[in-house]
Amino acid sequence: MPERTSTLQNRKAHHDYFILESLEAGIALVGCEVKSIRLGKANLQDSFARVDKNQIFLYGMHISPYAQGNRYNPDPTRIRKLLLHQNEIVRLASRVQEKGLSLVPLKLYFKNGKVKIQLSLAKGKTYGDKREKLKEKEANREIDRAFRKKFK
Questions:
Q1: For position 5, what pLDDT does the model report?
Q2: How far apart are CA 111 and CA 83, in angstroms?
Q3: Which of 1-10, 44-53, 77-86, 99-108 is the least confident region?
């Protein structure tokens, strides 16, 4: 039997965005999609969420068709509805209208047999922010190397 994974992550999100807050949401799926997610055949890389008519939809998430599924497998990149309470949707919609804020999925996981998605409110990083982060990371590596060399 193929290996099952419990969590799929969007690793690029932390590189491209400042994460301000996050919350858990359900996601409306069909049976074959759930089976594919259990096998780890999903990708959150270029996905994002958008508020439309007091509902939140997830765009760009790719779920590969289930191998043992039939000809009625859904489109891999179809738009999927996120399941949140109405007051959460209203709060997120008002925050997203602020300048530069986006809804970005961070994780896809199972909780009590249900597929959940960790949705975050994020602000996009500029090119300078990314370079600054890389410089900081490199400086920390140099410090660690110096300590290891000194105490060896």
A1: 54
A2: 14
A3: 1-10
Asked if 113 and 4 count as a contact pair (C-beta separation under 8 A), the reply is no
CATH of region 7-125, choose from 2.40.50.140, 2.60.40.3930, 2.40.280.10, 1.10.10.10? 2.40.280.10
3-state per-residue secondary structure call for the chain? CCCCCCEEECCHHHHHEEEEEEEEEEECCCHHHHHHHHCCCEECCCCEEEECCCCEEEECCEECCCCCCCCCCCCCCCCEEEECCHHHHHHHHHHHCCCCEEEEEEEEEEECCEEEEEEEEEEECCHHHHHHHHHHHHHHHHHHHHHHHHCC
Beta-strand relationship, 56-59 and 80-83: antiparallel
SS (H, E, C) 65-86: CCCCCCCCCCCCCCCEEEECCH
Convert the pLDDT of each residue in 47-61 to its tens digit. Answer: 999 999 899 999 999
Residue type at 29 in one-letter notation = L
In this predicted structure, what is the pLDDT of residue 1? 40
